[in-house]
Amino acid sequence: xxxxxxxxxxxxxxFGSESEEKEKEKFEKFQKFLDSNLKENxxxxxxxxxxxxxxxxxxxxxxxxxxxxxxxxxxVDKGIKIFYVSGNHDYxxxxxxxxxxxxxFFHDSLTIDLMSKRFYLHxxxxxxxxxKGYLLLRSILRNKVNIWLxxxxxxxxxxxxxxxxxxxxxxxSKKKYYSSFEEYFQFAQERFEEGIDFVIMGxxxxxxxxxxGDKFFINIGDWMENFTYGIYDGFQFRLxxxx
Length: 243
What we know:
By secondary structure, the chain is an alpha/beta fold. It has helices at 20-37, 66-77, 96-101, 132-141, 144-150, 155-173, 181-193; strands at residues 7-10, 43-46, 81-85, 104-106, 109-114, 117-122, 198-201, 208-212, 215-219, 228-232, 237-241.
C-alpha cells in the first residue's frame, strides 16, 4: 500500500448546542485535532450534525458557524479533501459548501472507493423502524414545500425554533439506540453483500466497531462527550479518542 494519504472520519459535534464554556472546549479540541493530524492529500469525512442547526437562506447562513467554517476552508486551501454527508440537524444545505467552501456535500449517503476498499457513508438516522414518530418527522422536515415555507420565517425566529426542537430531539432520543444496533448490523450486512467493505455512520453518539469477517460496521461516536474519530491508513481502521 503506497498511498500517501489517510482517511479521517468525524460526526456529531453539534456546534452551537451547548454552553459557551463547553463550546469553547469543543472548538479548541476540534481545531487542535485537525491541525495535529490532517496533512496535504488526506481526506476528511464529516458524517453529519457537525452543527446543531444549519439552514441556508438565499443570502444568509448561521453566524455562529463561522469559526468552524473558517477552519474547514483553510483545510481545503491546504489540499485536504473534505466530504460532508448531511445529518438530521444540517440537512438543509443549498449549495454553500460546494460553491463557497470547496466541500463536496451529500444529502443522503456517499459510496466511495479509496485504498482498494469500498466505503458506504451515512449519518445513520432513519434506520430504527419502530421509531415511527421520528420517521414521520424526518419526512416532514425534508419535504421541499415545508422547507420553502420555513424560509418565509425570519431567520432569528427560525433559528430559535430549530435549536429548541433539536435540543428536544437530542435529549429524548439518546436511550433509543442502545438496544437498536441490530437493525444497523442487518443494514450493514446487506451492503456487504453488494460489495461494500466499510459501513460507517454517526447519529447514535455511541462509538463502536463490529467485524463481519473482513467487513466492518463502524459508528464514529461524537465530538461532544466521547471526542472520538475514525482513521484508516490502508491497513487498519481505528477508532481513537482525542484527549
